[in-house]
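Here comes my example:
=====
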Amino acid sequence: MKLINIGFGNMVAAGRLIAIVSPESAPIKRIVQEARDRGVLIDGTYGRRTRAVLITDSDHVVLSALQPETVAARFEGGAEEGGAEDA
């Protein structure tokens, strides 16, 4: 099982991911709020600004403080650019 670092030492199983999206749009904000209400929201931001929302096949929603492009690069196995984001 391949794990992806989503920041601050938090990992997500790569095989369970369906989507990595930006949290800016209203539909994504609704998805996050509904996940919070259902108790399936996992906040991996450590109090930082949410920059990526990861949606899993188990209907869990994971919040990350890393850019979606950074998480996607890690998913593909590429090297991360700008290590300052990952504290």
